[in-house]
Amino acid sequence: MTVFLVIIVLALLAVTGWQISKIFQLSQSHDADTSQVANDKDNRLNGILMLAFVIFLYVITIYCFWEYGRFYLPPASAEHGAEYDNLMFISIALIMVVQVITQGLLHFFAYKYKGKKTQKALFYADNDKLEFIWTIIPVIVLAGLIIYGLFTWSDIMNVSDEEDPLVIELYAFQFDWRARYSGEDNTLGKANVRFIEGVNMLGVDESDPYAKDDVVVSELHLPVNRPVLFKFRSQDVLHSAYFPFFRAQMNVVPGMITQFGFTPTVTTAEIKESEYMRDKVRSVNEFRNEKNKELIAEGEPTLDAYEFDYFLLCNKICGQAHYNMQMKIIVETEEEFNAWMAEQPTFGSTMEDKSENVDRPEDTAGDAPADDSEENEETPNESDVVAVVNNEQN
Ligand SMILES: [Cu+2]
């Protein structure tokens, strides 16, 4: 509120100042140039400002490339990445060249042809040839860019079944991810939000035989050089699966299954060893060490050393803890992947373990007469529970 009042007071003061200066102007002698029409001096000043503005733009652009160019991602860790990066680079390079030239000419001409008292503007209605040239060149260039983009798009988006992709479901919910591998049959079991209960947090259909060998995990492991087809599902709101190092992103939409496929080509171990990543890790850790000195002085706990890992991130602002919605990705060799996979419990075994633990009261109910146990299969009410307890005592 105070800030609001201060702003109003400042605005009123500015208006007062402006009005006072107006009064001064009007009260000055008639010799001074009080005309509202720009004179040569005004035009020269505006011309120079035009030129200065475009120079400022260029300087800041060059500075940003120089200073922040290192924040570009390294070459993609997925097969389609090079295609994607090429399209991006060609589009940006074209836009860059055209904008540097046109922006420069626009401002330079504004300076060069600034108004002069002695000069009269030339009346020039139109020029068909010029108009044809500046229409047809952008048409050809844009059409080329769009067609190139469409080819790249269909190349990236079409995952053929012939490549035998590893099918993995990525399940998004506020605010975490789960991955479901389709197991030996490479077919995901059916799932529905209605089946969500206890450990079955993805709502996998227990009665579907394809679901038995599915494997649900909270860390995504991918074998290198094997095509992967991701099927995305959301439990609650719109999320977006974002794999920056693999140049992939796909919306995760409640009520439908979206998909995206790629082939990882660089293992986690390899990228950690790359020059780019070693530089990055070193510079992050330099910052952390500096910060740690401050923290030690304040008696606070220090930061851990940074280590790089691939991550799957959420790229849609989906709620309060959106910033922390991430899942670690480990790209490894086929052997390492198989060894890891062999250790993971399947969905079938997890559900069996669960029923062994949870279904014990029903087992006791089995001792009761047949008609009683039938009743128990329906929604149990309080009297049934009492009956079970009584049976146990007997
Ligand atoms: Cu999200």
Discrete helix count: 11
> β content, as a range?
5-15%
Instruction: Specify the structural class.
Output: alpha+beta
> What is the N-to-C succession of helices and strands?
HHHHEEEEEEEEHHEEHHHHH
Any idea what the CATH superfamily of the domain at 166-271 and 308-349 is called? Cupredoxins -  blue copper proteins
- The portion of residues assigned to helices is 40-55%
Sum up the overall morphology in one term.
elongated
> Main β-sheet, in a few words?
5 strands, mixed
Assign the CATH architecture of the domain at 166-271 and 308-349: Sandwich
Q: How would you write the strand order of the largest sheet?
A: 3-2-1-5-8
Determine and state the CATH class of the domain at 166-271 and 308-349. Mainly Beta
Cα-based radius of gyration, to the nearest Å: 34 Å
Mean pLDDT: 84
Strand tally: 10
State the end-to-end CA separation.
Answer: 73 Å
Bound molecules: copper (II) ion
Q: Which regions contain 5 or more consecutive residues with pLDDT less than 50?
A: 359-394
CATH overall fold name of the domain at 166-271 and 308-349: Immunoglobulin-like
